Batch of 3 targets.
Target 1
Amino acid sequence: MAGGTLLLGSLDEVRVEVRRSPGATLFSLLRDILGGEPSGVPASWRHAVREALPASAALIGPLLNGSGCPWTPRSLTLVDSARTTSMSTLLRELEELDPQELAAEVARHFGDSAPPFWQRILDDPEAFLAVYVKVVRAAATVIEPLWARADSLFARETEPIGAAVVSGGLDAVLTGLSPSLRYLDGRLRLPRVPAGARPGLDGRRLVLVPLASGFKASMYGVERDDLVWIGYPLPGLGRIVTRAAPAPSQDSALTRILGPIRAGILRASSWEPSVSDLARHLHLSLGTITYHCDQLTAAGLLHRERRGREVRLRLTHRGAELLDLLT
């Protein structure tokens, strides 16, 4: 792509859509926290996520540094399934990734001269993928309440963009997307582009992805054959930023009936955490979490499910119905 410019051509012929992507928001958040790619993540959010991350999170830092690592395997960007809007579905898809497919993707990209970081992935893709899944799941446990709180903002974002497309005002939308992107006369200037990327849309759709991760969040993908996606800060994000770390209301009906600990466990269990994940998320001991999980399991609200070496907690149908009713 010459000069880092994506040729859009006549905007009247560009097919545009807006999608919400939990994976893009999570990946942008982790790029800021672990990769040193500033996205304007609020300090309370950054602190809460850091507290939840496992010690092994540092191992994936190089993957998230766009300056030192300009390429990311499509399977790890968390936006490969562009229509996945549920975090639980996203995490399940990530857990089902084949480590050998990841290794094959890395080998195709680097050939016989993979840099040291990527060579370690080639040597043991299963171990790397296990760490990556654990890190993403820990971040998702913290960010899920914020993602849910931003739902109305996502809904509002689709309306003005749809109106701009119909009225011929798409150029104004593209001009104001992000300070790191520059649009002028049918050309979208991007900070970095992979070698060999196609110089224009060539009939591909342009997918706009609002990111609920930070006030300066910016990501994009130009390698796919079917679409080009552009991530930008979700307008109105400041409305859901609070001084404290993300936490559910303590005055909800669920809390009054079950108590704060069991209510917190049920809320977090919609993302299928482990007992250790819950202990970190709720800042409680493993013994306390285990006791309350046992009581919720006996009541038919929780179910334990073994996945490899870990035991995950998920809501039963009865537990999900109770959560929906009281929240």
Target 2
Amino acid sequence: MFSLRASRLARPAFRLTKRFLATGAEDARFRIPVIDFSKFREATVFDERKRTADEIVTAFKESGFVYLAGHGIPAATIRNTFAKSAEFFTMPSETKNKLAWEDPRSNRGYVTVGRERVTQSADPDEIASLRAKAPDFKESMEIGRDWDAEWKNQWPAEKDAPKFKDTMLDFYQTCHDLHVLVMRSIALGLGLEENFFDTKINEQCHNLRLLSYPPIKTSLLKADGQARAGAHSDYGTLTLLFQDSVGGLEVKDPRTGDFIPATPIPETIVINVGDLLARWSNDVLRSTLHRVVAPPAKQISETEGITPARQSIAFFCNPNFSAEIACLPNCGQEAKYPPVNTGDYIVGRLAVTYT
């Protein structure tokens, strides 16, 4: 299995000539920085690690998002995972539907187009109304830790999706390993012991989500509130997002309310803060609203266009489901939120998101 600690293979092939990626007018304040994480992974002295840690925490305080370069995951690994994901979604619907998502406590299995409606609302009736009016136009495959004694992953037969299971399990572990390192950088940036989070995330209660956004006619995107994925924040600690070149991710500028494109940058991973980490940090770290919109359409008639297909892979990082999330040291003297159990919080959010 690939080791993030040892590898120097995935240094960014491009030169990081800009400290920040501007996402709007030149004088706009909203920035998503490009951070070279190899300077943290390969540092030989503490001060080098601390400088990168401070950059990451500063970004998460200001925008809640970073582009992580030098992350240590080889491009070939990511390409292969995308290829196996694409092969999965080309399977017949009847084959995929046998693997259907069933329970928010499991959060595993196939989710057909329109079944999920991500939103900030926690009202089941409001979400049902939104889903009926403007469902998220995407399908997904949800994968959790494979050794769970209670909840099992829903794997396709090997003959239907050769090497799919092995590829996804390896990628799951690789993403977890990166999560551990980024959380260590956050701990340093917040003035905590570097290993502060290790025992609070070691049970790997994460969710690997493979996403396919099929082509869609522009006329179907004109409904009120329609998007490929509606505006939302994520639930856990961090999200690692692997994008293809099509794009469509937009991030909400918390100052202006405008949604700004997070244009794909080759060989980087988009990483954002989730709600539980924001809550853990007493809102020192920002969980920012984002959405997926359709990229420019190809005209197929005088009155109709069609958007391109899009693929992405999201690794939703969570604390251990047994962990209590309460205000961290160094994040304010007065807690804004009462303590909450991770498992209860995640399951509660998922329960109202799906039909």
Target 3
Amino acid sequence: MAAFMNDEAFLKKGFLISTDKSLLNIETIYNYLNNESYWAQGIPRERLERAIANSMCFGVYESDEFAGFARVVTDNATFAYICDVFILTSFRKKGLSKWLIQTIVNHPDLRGLRRWSLATADAQGLYNQFGFSQITKPERWMEIFTPYKTQ
């Protein structure tokens, strides 16, 4: 497994972050996003698989056990959107989400980006630690939002 931003404290505890998509537990990711997240409930599995295939993905592992996930939509030159970030319940309260975001924003392929973006309803405190803030000129941003239909 390729690890980035090796943090000795986590590595000594058996944790690793990897961008190797072959290690991802797609079933667990799908179940979490579809059933437990507030942002992706109702996502069709095929759509999630396409999103993963076309994104930079970060898996968090304890030994070989899947512990968390984040996806980055990026052109690797100017812009990145961080999404689908989660740590499974049994792995929370260990600092893994902070380590995951630190690893993402310091990843060699993402250095020097002009703009990072994300959306969150409840984790502003986590992202503030890495320089994220509310959009300063929201009048310039626009969106089309089409929520998934829950099953």
